[in-house]
Design brief:
Layout (H helix, E strand, L loop, with lengths): L1 H12 L12 H5 L4 E9 L5 E2 L2 E2 H14 L3 E13 L4 H18 L2 E10 L7 E11 L15 E4 L5 H10 L16 H10 L5 E4 L4 H13 L2 E5 L7 H10 L12 E5 L4 H9 L8 E7 L6 E4 L5 E3 L13
Parallel strand pairs: 4-5, 9-12
Antiparallel strand pairs: 1-6, 2-3, 4-6, 7-10, 7-11, 8-10, 9-11, 12-13
Helix pairs in contact: 1-4, 3-4, 3-6, 6-9
Amino acid sequence: MKALVEDVFVGAFGEVAREDAATTRLAELAAHGETLAFTTDSFVVTPLVFPGGDIGKLAVCGTVNDLATAGAVPLQLSCSVILEEGLEIALLRDIVRSMAETARQAGVRIVTGDTKVVPHGACDRLFVNTAGIGVVRRGVAPSSAACRPGDVVLVSGPLGDHGAAILAARGDLALETTVESDCAPLHRLVGRLLDAVPGTCFLRDATRGGLATVLNEAAAASKVGIELSETAVPVRDAVRGLCEILGLDPLYLANEGRMVAVVPGDAAEAALAALRADPLGREAALIGRCVADRPGRVVMDTAFGGRRIVDMLTGEQLPRIC
């Protein structure tokens, strides 16, 4: 175990805590703000490698993005892995290198971790847990309960890429598609938005359950109605086609590199400009607004001139997508 950890993990991550806990000077954290943000997530995606990413990249991006939704600057991550006996070391090396490279690109450090090996059949090849800490930027406080009538809803880019890429990569349905996962760290994109609109009301990365579930949570917490325009919601043709073939709804597909934001109506143009100035937000769009009617309900004006209720996802549309 010592050889595995030293060779595979420490060799990729660089300096990590050799003790039972990593330590950080409080002054280093306080330089960024006054409020600490802390999150954790587990990743069990199958397949482990998919178009546009792998479970290692996904773990770093997912945790960084969870911190970003709190308006935090991500600083440090932990990495714990559960390995099934028999997992190929070459595959593990590739995933760990991907994780280390993604962390470097995101400007965060992996400072501590843990490794366990379980008997064959006790887990599905490789599970990853990451926890992260960051510091909330001064003067910002996004919350699912902060949306008000007159606010507008933005997304940072086309929806459903990750869910569609994972589904196609499994090969169960013999589908061919060029769609790649949108997996990406979004904290710099969020930083641009918060610089332009410090009063941003709500931020959420639309992962499991997709856009529909995220907005239902915001509508319920804020006691507002949310109205969407189907023609304004960006979805790639390849994703839309895949959904039509399989009877899926792109509003519920998982995303790993898309941020949903609610901002005051008078800040819509500034928010869109800030998002589109970032490479990860070039296709950002305004897709709806918050209203006083139908509190707690999300509705959509369809492309055919009708109106439909967009409910919370009540089942598991795609298992093991993150």
